[in-house]
Design goal:
62% of the residues lie in helices and 0% in strands. It has one domain (2-197). 54% of the residues are buried. The protein has helices at 2-16, 19-28, 42-48, 51-76, 91-104, 117-127, 129-146, 149-157, 160-166, 171-187, 189-197. By secondary structure, the protein is mainly alpha-helical. α7 (129-146) packs antiparallel against α8 (149-157).
Length: 230
């Protein structure tokens, strides 16, 4: 059980790595939280720093979600002591939750962060590569149709528990799918408000001011985070 808890803690720390913040500091010397949409994710890095840095942020955010969950999958093996509430294979899904929360509540940024979409995609790839591939394809399709990253991220994550079910994943994975659906959607609440107001920027556009809706403090992070799939 000590290993179980350690893996979850490692996943939280890995998820907390503020890739977009550090890259923007290194490349342009700016605090990305003070520019564009105030997000630390790849979409805002694309707007404020450039394509190359944004691609790096996107891929690394996927990796930091994938690595700890893949390690947990490897170590799990259906250990009886790692069964919780009758659900087997629970360590990896709980590590996935920890990585999601870590990205949006980074210990390196005073518990601020992103919206957890790209990191979420990494966790899904670790749990089931086929589900991850279908999820990413769904995100690309929605993005191609709407040109709005937040719509693609929300739309894709809403399909996640369905995809886990269709691929006959363990019940713990399906439960994680519902958890990610709720969490990533909640992290996009400011985007949803802008969508309702017609002010949400399409990919490549500068966000309209004020970035966060009237009477609402600016969003401190993006766990879509990245503007990437859940």
């Amino acid at each position: 059980m000590a290993t179980f808890i350690l893996m979850i803690a490692i996943a939280f720390v890995a998820g907390s790595i503020p890739t977009g913040y550090w890259v923007a500091k290194a490349v342009k010397g700016i605090d990305i939280r003070e520019h564009g949409s105030k997000s630390t994710g790849a979409t805002n890095v694309l707007r404020c720093v450039g394509k190359g840095p944004a691609l790096f942020v996107f891929l690394f955010d996927i990796f930091k979600g994938w690595a700890p969950v893949a390690a947990a999958v490897y170590l799990d093996g259906g250990k009886p002591e790692w069964t919780i509430l009758g659900l087997a294979h629970t360590c990896a899904p709980l590590c996935a939750v920890a990585a999601l929360v870590g990205h949006s509540k980074s210990i390196f940024l005073g518990f601020q962060g992103g919206k957890s979409a790209a990191t979420g995609l990494g966790t899904v790839i670790a749990l089931n590569p086929m589900v991850g591939a279908v999820l990413f394809a769904t995100w690309l399709l929605i993005l191609g149709l709407t040109k709005i990253v937040s719509v693609a991220s929300i739309g894709a994550v809403w399909m996640l528990p369905v995809y886990f079910w269709l691929f006959h994943d363990p019940a713990a994975h399906i439960a994680y799918g519902f958890t990610a659906l709720v969490y990533v959607t909640w992290r996009h609440k400011a985007n949803i408000k802008r969508l309702m107001e017609g002010t949400e920027p399409k990919i490549g556009q500068k966000p309209k001011e004020p970035v966060a809706g009237a009477g609402e403090p600016p969003e401190t992070g993006k766990g879509s985070e990245t503007g990437s799939p859940a």
